[in-house]
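Human:
Focus on the backbone:
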Amino acid sequence: MAALSTQVTGNQTHYKTISESLRKFTTNGERGGGPPPERGLGERPTRARRQNERVRILEIVLGTLIVLATWISVVANLVVPRGLRSRYTRLLRDVVRVPFQAVADRARTFERKDLILAWAAPLSILATLLSWLGLSVIGFGFVLTGVGGIGLGKGMLESGSSVFTLGFLSSSDSQQTFVDFCAAATGPVMIGLLVGYLPAMYSAYSQREAEVTMLQARAGVPAWGPEILMRHVQVPGLITQLTTLYQGWERWAAQIAESHTSYPVLIHFRSPRATRNWLVALLAIMDAAALELALNPSKPKATMRMTLRAGFTCLREIADVEGIPYDADPDPDGDIALTYAEFSQGLDMLRYANYPMERAPDEAWAHFRGWRVNYEFLAYTLAYRIDAVAAPWSGPRRTQRQVLSVRSPVDRQPSLAKAKDKAREDARAQG
């Protein structure tokens, strides 16, 4: 019995020691001295899971926004038939132009400069398409990463495989497969829209250049307003056709306003010849109409006024697309960049060609300035921006070189005496 009592007492002591140890261990754990409780161990995976879900949602939202913004740019430039301003495409066009402009500014001749700049606008179209496809790859890559919970690198590879219809990487997950289908449709649709866009754009370019080329015989190269009036005086009866010329260019200006606001890249497309330019040609027509109104007030004014109105309306609509600010209601007495000395030089040439003038030069200058204030600033700003050929009365350029002068044709008549001598020689040779 004594042995049994001793064993029970020992067991009780042992159990008591274990209980005290467990109590100390629990107390230390709650105070931070031991391992965290079981409830804390379950909170860490939950917090990490929630953070991972937030990252995936952010990736899906970011990718969706990139895709939507890209498609808005595509539709605005290739589908909607109006001049929607796109800062992205204009910025990209300017970025593409920078290296060409830097090289062209160092060219020794304007012909060489024009040849270099002729590449910039067409290549900006290709760069725009490639940027749209690249942004689509990035956007769908983020979406696939968020939807599938895969790495960003794998998501970009799968997106590129779908956008470019390569098909070397795909997923069996239904959600990722749906995103792959959307990405696979993006590339062909964008390329198809651009293929349909190019013929319409180049058709508008061809129509523009046809009129500019036809004006060469009447205005010289580069085109100049006084030269138009002088050449129409030189040929008997041709001056009566000025009204028809103005009417044609009124319609041309309306077409340019429509096409160059729908396809803004056409503004920077250069003519096939370095000495021809659509903006310089329009400026020459407007100057010729303004000169006629200023010099001969008794002539019918309706056609010339409508041509001027159509011309500076065209320039203003193009300026809106290019983001050029202007005064919509300029003061007729406002200053212009053209000097009175340059104006007098043009009048001297007209006087030499016997062009009729009803007003004195001083009086005509006031009226001419009142008309030119409506379009000179916009014409000069656009000519500087596109680096048009440096024609007389067309403003400054990036590189200060001599203005290209217009070569007026000389009205030479055959010699009657030489013709008779030639006829006698031919008769003797045959006899």
Remarks:
- The chain is about 70% helix and 0% strand.
- The two ends are 174 Å apart (CA to CA).
